[in-house]
Structure formats: C-alpha cells, structure tokens
Write a structure and sequence with these properties.
Strand 2 and strand 3 form a beta hairpin. A four-stranded antiparallel beta sheet has the order 2-3-1-4. The longest helix has 18 residues. It folds into two domains: 193 residues, Serine Threonine Protein Phosphatase 5, Tetratricopeptide repeat (Alpha Horseshoe); 80 residues, Sporulation related repeat (Alpha-Beta Plaits), CATH 3.30.70. It is 54% helix and 8% strand. The chain has 331 residues and is of the alpha+beta class.
C-alpha cells in the first residue's frame, strides 16, 4: 500500500509540473531581468526556449544580442529570433529582419522589414522608406517613402528627420502631401511604437498576457545610410522661392487670426507635422502652435495674427514649405 501511494504521489507531482504554464518561467525571467539579474533571467528562459516557447526565444535572443547574462552572439540571437518569428512572434520577426539587414543580407531581410514597417515598426519604416526613395531593393515610390519616413520620425527615430529634410528637396509637393496622408492612415491602423535612445533595463523581456511588459526595441548596431539624392532633381521640381521677412516672435504677438496647417486623426501626427514645418519655414518657426480638438480630429493651428492679411502671408510661406494651409479665426 505504501509503495502504491508513493507511486501515485510521484505521478501527481509529474502531472502538476506538466500543468504549470510556461508563462510562469517567462515572467520570472522578466522580473529577474528588471532587477539586473541577467544570468537568472537567461536560466529561466533557456529551457522554455529549448522547448519552443516563442516569447522565451525572443527574450533569450535579446539577451544574446545585448550580451547580458550570456556572451554577446548575434548569430545565436538571429537563430532565436528566426525560431520565434516562424511561430508568428511579430517582435522577433522585426528583429530577425533587422539583424539580416545589418549583416549585409539585404534581399533576404526585406520581406521581414516590409512587414514590420507596415505594422509601424520605426526602424523598419526607416529602412523601407530609404529603399522606396532610392528604388533600391524596392520599386521607387516617393509618396510611400515619405509616409514611411514620416512614421519613423513621428515615433522619435532621430535619423528619420534628417532623411525627411533631404527628401523635401527632391520629392514634389503633391507627392509629399500624398505621403503625409498615407502616414496618417497608417498611424490610425497601427499602435504607436516608442524608440528609446538607450536600451532600458527591460529591453529584452516580453511577457504574455500583459502586453505592457513588452520591451522597447533597441536601435540597430549599424544603421543604413540616409537616402542619397537621385541622380538629377525631378523634372517638375520648383525653384526655391525668395524668403519673406519672418513674423514677430509669438510672445510679442496678439490677435484673433491663426493659420491652420492640417487636421490629423492622431495628435502625434499633428505634433510631427509642426516639428517638420517649423524647422523648414523660418516664417512659421516663431509662431505659437495650437492643437485644437475637433471631433475625431486634431487641428494644427499657429499664430496669433492681428489681421487676416498677415495670416495669409504666413500661409503662403507655409505652402511654399510644403504644407497645406488656410487662415482661420479663433473661435
């Protein structure tokens, strides 16, 4: 009887161990990582990754990529990201494509890069936007290139702003406007992704079922160069207009008139457009921006102006700088 009871107890313990969710080990690894105990985090994820858990594979790949708790090994990281990506892990798929691109396997990387870019991954948007602008690794498509780069810039990727400045010199105004509209539609369909200037302690781990514990992606170790200009400017490019005197600083201005530079479904889109326009157009830079909520839209306005004529002159400068613009009276 004693032997039988002992056997039943062992069987029960084995079944109980089998019933424990893999999530417990993933979360324990996340907690250890956040506390700076990278070796313990790796120890938690390793057996789960060996058994095919995609979150554990992604987290372990991040550890190998960063060299935390294990020696840095990008080849091993790539293998782990690939294993998780083949199971539908989207963050792993993005990292898998980015590592391939860094390693010079650009053609193999592009399908992963394109899918990640269309989901709103900023680093992938930067690479795909560059390819679309140059017509290299993707057919040349300037409106889509501008949309991708606008999305990357709005997410906070710093090198995207430099690329937008370069694109502004070659992409015609109508194509830039089409690109901005495309970027707004993409922003509506995708969740915002933040870019960290330096990887925080929680860079590696992700957990199920709490998406908020997912890591912020780390910028690639090496980045593709910013898009070089085409061999010659487009035929329908316009000559640079002569500048007009900038308006007085916002602190010294008053009045009921403003200029409206667009309406955006996402507040972040309005903020990104203001950064771009105020940087390009000196007549706009000294104005006070206003983000005015109107139903589902955020109107980007700037001012104030004492008269409609003064507002119209600023609007003309904004249009020459590539932005839509109308005059509006403060409600």
């Amino acid at each position: 009887m004693g032997k039988k009871s002992s056997g039943l107890l062992v069987t029960a313990l084995i079944l109980a161990a089998m019933a424990l969710p893999a999530q417990a080990g993933v979360q324990e690894g996340v907690d250890a990582w956040r506390n700076g105990d990278y070796a313990r985090a790796v120890a938690e994820w390793q057996p789960l990754a060996d058994n095919g858990d995609p979150d554990a594979q992604f987290n372990l790949g991040q550890a190998y990529k960063l060299g935390r708790g294990v020696p840095q090994d990008t080849e091993r990281a790539q293998q782990l990201f690939g294993n998780a990506a083949r199971q539908g892990h989207l963050q792993a798929e993005a990292n898998y494509g980015l590592i391939h691109f860094q390693n010079g396997n650009r053609e193999e990387a592009m399908p992963y890069i394109i899918r990640a870019a269309n989901r709103g991954e900023p680093r992938a948007q930067y690479i795909y936007g560059t390819a679309l602008f140059n017509g290299d690794l993707a057919p040349r498509d300037w409106p889509r290139a501008y949309a991708m780069m606008t999305g990357a810039a709005a997410a906070g990727l710093p090198q995207a702003n430099a690329s937008i400045e370069q694109m502004d010199r070659y992409i015609p105004l109508d194509q830039r406007e089409a690109g901005r509209e495309m970027a707004e539609r993409m922003a509506e369909a995708t969740a915002p992704v933040e870019i960290a200037s330096a990887p925080p302690p929680a860079t590696a781990p992700v957990t199920r079922p709490a998406p908020q514990t997912a890591p912020r992606p780390t910028p690639p170790v090496s980045r593709p160069s910013t898009p070089p200009p085409p061999a010659s400017p487009p035929v329908n490019s316009r000559p640079t207009p002569q500048p007009t005197p900038p308006p007085a600083p916002a602190a010294a201005r008053s009045g009921d008139w403003r200029i409206q530079l667009g309406a955006f479904r996402q507040r972040s889109g309005a903020e990104a457009h203001w950064r771009n326009v105020s940087r390009r157009v000196s007549q706009i830079a000294g104005l006070q921006p206003y983000l005015v909520r109107a139903g589902p839209y955020t109107r980007l306005q700037a001012g104030p102006f004492a008269t409609q004529a003064e507002a119209q002159r600023a609007c003309n400068a904004a249009r020459r700088g590539g932005s839509d613009c109308i005059t509006a009276r403060r409600q």
